[in-house]
Specification:
Elements lengths: L2 E6 L6 E3 L2 E6 L16 H17 L6 E2 L1 H15 L16 E9 L8 H10 L16 H7 L5 E10 L4 E10 L8 H4 L7
Parallel strand pairs: 4-6
Antiparallel strand pairs: 1-3, 2-5, 5-7, 6-7
């Protein structure tokens, strides 16, 4: 029986990043592959934290802290998501009370992994079209608004990477608490950038 599913797709020659869309389709593929190896380390976590906090500071949002439980949760989400090619499963299985941003990239170069800065910069760049005069959610800006969401305080990110069927793939998952993107709460949580 068909069900609504949130999935993502924005493609470029070397990589693809998620943009929220609603799709009607089957519950998911009957096949799955083994998860790609975890590539999360302390340097990756620091890159995630530093990049998020730099963008948040531009919008007057307080800095995030890394939550080890969210890191473990993001790693389990990365394992789950990498079992399916691309981001076809989207946010399926996300536990309530968590915000989530997803990133996928592919490369023909062995060992080329996307950095957290690559992912967070792509998410943040989605905010170029955000309308501060009419605050709210859109598929184009949802990743941006989660990055700068003022009331979010904790983050946990994970990366899984390895050889996929066509590419050397990198998946990055960042989970947030409290989650962002609540209807009616955008004006106080997504502040315009401060002048530089």
């Amino acid at each position: 029986m068909p069900r609504l599913r949130r999935t993502a797709a924005v493609m470029s020659a070397a990589s693809a990043f998620a943009a929220l869309t609603t799709v009607v389709g089957p519950a998911g593929p009957a096949w799955a592959r083994d998860p790609l190896p975890q590539r999360t380390d302390q340097a990756f976590q620091q890159d995630c934290l530093k990049t998020h906090n730099a963008y948040r500071a531009r919008h007057g949002a307080p800095p995030l802290t890394v939550d080890p439980q969210l890191v473990a949760y993001a790693a389990s989400r990365a394992d789950e998501i990498t079992r399916f090619e691309g981001l076809n499963e989207g946010h399926r299985g996300l536990e309530p009370g968590h915000g989530e941003n997803l990133h996928w990239s592919g490369s023909s170069v062995a060992g080329r992994m996307a950095s957290c800065k690559d992912a967070v910069t792509r998410w943040y760049d989605g905010g170029r079209t955000y309308d501060y005069a009419k605050p709210g959610f859109s598929g184009e800006t949802g990743f941006f608004t989660q990055v700068v969401w003022k009331s979010t305080t904790r983050i946990g990110c994970a990366r899984a990477a390895g050889r996929g069927p066509q590419w050397y793939e990198t998946y990055i998952v960042c989970n947030y608490t409290p989650p962002g993107n609540f209807s009616g709460r955008f004006k106080e949580n997504v502040l315009p950038p401060r002048s530089r």
